[in-house]
Amino acid sequence: MHDQDITTALAGQVREAAATGRALRVRGGGSKDFYGRNPVGEPIEVAPHRGIVNHAPTELVLTARAGTPLSEIEAVLAEHGQMLPFEPPRFGPAATLGGTIACNLSGPRRPYAGAARDLVLGTRVLNGRGEVLSFGGEVMKNVAGYDVSRLMAGAFGTLGVLLEVSVKVLPAPEAELTLAQEAGPADALDRMHAWAARPLPVSATCGDGERLYVRLSGAARAVEAAARQLGGEPLPEAGRFWHAIREQEHGFFSGEGTLWRLSVACAAPPIPLSGAWLYEWGGAQRWFRGGADPEAVRAAAAAAGGHATRFRGGRRDDAFHPLSTGLLTLHRRLKQAFDPAGVLNPGRMYGEL
Fold first, then answer.
1. For the chain, which residues make up each domain, given as ranges?
2. Which residues contact 30 (CB under 8 A, 6 or more apart)?
3. pLDDT at residue 138, rounded to an integer
4. Averaged in consecutive runs of 10 residues, what is the pLDDT profile of the chain (353 residues)?
């Protein structure tokens, strides 16, 4: 498919929907349709709106239309020895840049290089009136509209249709090495927490309850020195292992029952819920499968300083942690400002929105 700009057509569809009160379901590659509440409304297809608009390797920035496949972006960056720092999961070959940013999804490198939201420099957005708005830019110094661009990350298309996104990119590391150590849940969390306080080139961690995996990335000498300090056995085919974790192709994710994602304080001890656990992000992201009541899961997450998301399986009408009264009021005001007719992805995050 050739690169193309269909801004005019997308704007016309939004304006017509706003005038008639029809809901629009914002859709890129469809790889994240499982995530959050059920999408509703007439599809507004963003995938044809694609193409890399600008890539300045020396400036470490890339701008692309929202429908551009992640695979295409990553291939272009690889040619220049660069990468998307937040290591985004695709969850399917059709994954797009816009869908990734709209869901604010990041992979194993997130605690060490930043989240998707942190790397967004600027956006062009189609609001619920069919108006094209621009925020931020292509350099870190351009702060005008910067926070609004970040606001679009994780909004699930409820505030606007992403048209273009500018992101910061980074050089790919010179060397990488993954080490595996025997470690139970408590030991794994203690080690990850201790490593975070040391100047180590850690770029990913994962504990499955029996073994702890740590990826080191950077200059070859720094990686070798850190490996001597940490110990453990080098993991063969480490790239395949981290791909399986990122894309949820690891055996843990094929289990039965609801898959919960808990975002908690990294130093929190193991959470007392019976089931299967997988730890990432230095202990800050914890995946859980078990028969616990949703209220119990969310209460446990709150007690650990965070929140819980129903990621896959089970009911979809309460996927996200309930909002406090104050936050719900803020969300409603933002929705009113960007999408006064309420036509963009209504109910995709919360039924009240």
1. 7-171+333-338, 175-312
2. 92, 94
3. 63
4. 90 97 95 92 96 95 97 97 97 96 96 95 95 78 65 94 97 97 96 94 97 98 97 96 97 89 95 95 96 93 96 88 93 94 95 89
- Dig out the tokens for 165 from the structure: 């996104």
Give me the helices (H) in the chain, please. 7-20, 70-79, 97-103, 110-113, 116-119, 146-152, 185-196, 220-230, 238-246, 294-303, 325-338
Residue with tokens 């995938």: 47
pLDDT computed for residue 291 by the predictor: 85
According to the CATH classification, is domain 7-171+333-338 in 3.40.50.1110? no
Do 91 and 32 touch, CB atoms closer than 8 A?
A: yes
pLDDT of residue 144: 52
pTM of the model: 0.93
What are the C-alpha distances in Å from 116 to residues 120, 153, 169, 351?
7, 7, 11, 25
Count Cα neighbours of 106 within 13 Å in the Cβ-side half-sphere.
26
Q: Nearest-CA neighbor of 94 among 162, 47, 55?
A: 47
* One-character DSSP codes across 1-16: ---B--HHHHHHHHHH
Q: What secondary structure does DSSP assign to 47-72, as a single string?
A: TTSB-EEEEEGGGTEEEEETTSBHHH
Secondary element (H or E) of residue 181: strand 175-182
Which of 216-220's residues contact partners 24+ apart within 8 Å by CB, and which partners? 216/176, 216/177, 216/178, 216/179, 217/109, 217/173, 217/175, 217/176, 218/173, 218/174, 218/175, 219/174, 219/175, 220/174, 220/175
Instruction: Characterize the bridge pairing of strands 42-45 and 24-27.
Output: parallel
